Amino acid sequence: MAELQLKSWRFRVEREDDWRRLEALLRKAESKSASALTDEEILAMPVLYRSALSSLSVARATSLDRGLVEYLENLSTRAYFFVYGARSTLGSRLQSFFARDWPRTIAGLWRETLASFALLAIGVIAGYVLTGQDPDWFYSFIPAGMAGGRDPTASTESLRATLYGADHDGLSVFATFLFTHNAQVALLAFALGFAFCLPSALLVAYQGATLGAFVWLFVNRGLGFEAIGWLAIHGVTELFAIVLAGAAGIRIGWATAFPGERPRLEAAAAAGKTAGVAMGGVVAMLFVAGMLEGFGRQLITLDLARYGVAAATAVMWGLYFYWPRRREALDGAR
Amino acid sequence: MARAEAIRKPGGDAPLVRELITPEGVDLRLQLGDAGQRASAFLLDGAFIVLALIVMTIAAIGAAIASGFKEAGAEVALIVWLLGAFLLRNAYFLAFELTPRAATPGKRIMGLRVAARDGGRLTADAVFARNALRELEVFLPMSVLAAQAQSGDVEGWMWLLALIWSCIFVFMPLFNRDRLRCGDLVGGTWVVRTPKRKLEQDLADDALLRLKRFAFSPAQLDAYGVKELHVLEDVLRVRHRATMAEVAGRIRRKIAWVAAPAEDDEDFLNAYYAALRGRLEARLLMGKRRADKHDKS
């Protein structure tokens, strides 16, 4: 044979160093983080990536060394994910999330929010009316564990005591437990939306029914004003969060059930991203609610002060989500 | 931005290969993780979480004992435990998949990573949506199972229906060809294989120089095509002695090669590999790709 070495072999020998360099950079970036790379290495990465891609094209066309082609495919894919992957830091992501993405998404979900809110209201009314007609309903809405002795058989005095519990021990544990429990319920309400909305809707309505039955019990004993203050101090935030979680679930379920002109998968993915943003914030909201419930409610025992806090949170969330934002702020978000 | 379409590659031997055209116009031929790899990765992650929970519980109990069960100390330990368990359950997957590697430790071990299905950037909201749906896929079925343990067989049928219903979500990846679970559907993501691969030695490395004594005629080199060349490459990389002897025997018969006394099978195969590759690559440059030995082009 005239030439003793293969063209593909020479091709490999000439470029191998570049590939190995790219591989080393990738290993460094993947095992630590992108910030472990020096400026020089960051600048070299896209160049090396493009050269690996062009090597891949050449190798596919001219080389029959399968080991080499597969190696280059793998290397190019890893480099592709690095070069075109997300690079923003967690801090800047969080900042843009709370400053723009989240309130904008929530404002965009207003239809679903209204629907979800209506479901909650229906639940409250149903719970209130049904329990009023037959107190036995109370037990079907509120599990005994959650009622904690606050049921129709309790005396008015003991009910009053639960509203102004002077017992401050274990407050922070209580707050933490409430937060984790509520966040889990909200995440479930969201995830259930995937099954065509219905389970989400049911869960929200059920929460409303629980609330309605609870309010009925206290109103029945002439403690309505006090009980609503006790609930509202954290409930405004918490129920709003649950309404939003339900709204996010409805958005997904609706897109899955009625995708419109787009393919079903695409519609579900688009809705999922919107709803995902909304849910990230809902967890943060529930954290605030947990704090208010665990600390605020136990430490503030004056009814009017409780109403004041509730009104303040309502105004605050309302303004934060629905205050019209300037156009460029919206455009900057994408 | 790049475009990826779920196109089944012709040939059928790699049903999990998908097209991903980079902005530079090269198809990366992504390989999706199969159901087994996905399940193993998840079980590994689950094991890590349980392990962390156990360690955390022991630490919390230890802290409570160390504080002599005084209220403040025990309280802090309990708070840390509650928050830690919550974070493990919800933030473990989220935090790891938001890193540049876009993979949890379990996925890393299995050589998997999460990627956006449209080939674009993997955004935080996509990762969040994908992992929030775990509530439906993992924790709901688990609580359904646990509910049975508590309530006995009173509502057996309801329980069975709930179980079937939740199993649809658990086994979703088996029902579609892209192996998408519910979270992937909603997040617009999929899980691809990016194992670390080493650049292996070129089998034609100076084989022609070193093994000059093997001189094959063009007719002998025309016996096989690309497919057989790749099989030969596999055989040479594995270097299993009996297989090499078997393959060398077959090739010698097929090309009517008269073996020199004490001719080494590996040397023979190596030389034939290099010569065959040279021949096929030369024809490839002329635009003729001979697929296999039956290809008469």
Walkthrough of the structure:
The complex is a heterodimer of chains A (about 325) and B (about 300). Chain A has 14 helices and no strands. In chain A, helix 11 runs antiparallel to helix 12 and helix 11 runs parallel beside helix 13. Chain A folds into two domains: about 5-85; about 90-330, no CATH class. Chain A is mostly helical. Helices cover about 55% and strands about 5% of the residues of chain B. Chain B has helices at about 35-65, 70-95, 105-110, 125-130, 135-150, 155-170, 180-185, 205-210, 220, 225-240, 240-255, 265-285, and strands spanning about 5, 15-20, 30, 110-115, 190-195. In chain B, helix 1 (about 35-65) runs antiparallel to helix 2, helix 10 (about 225-240) packs antiparallel against helix 12 (about 265-285) and helix 11 crosses helix 12 (about 265-285). At the A-B interface, helix 1, helix 2, helix 3, helix 4 and helix 9 of A face helix 2, helix 4, helix 5, helix 7 and helix 10 of B.
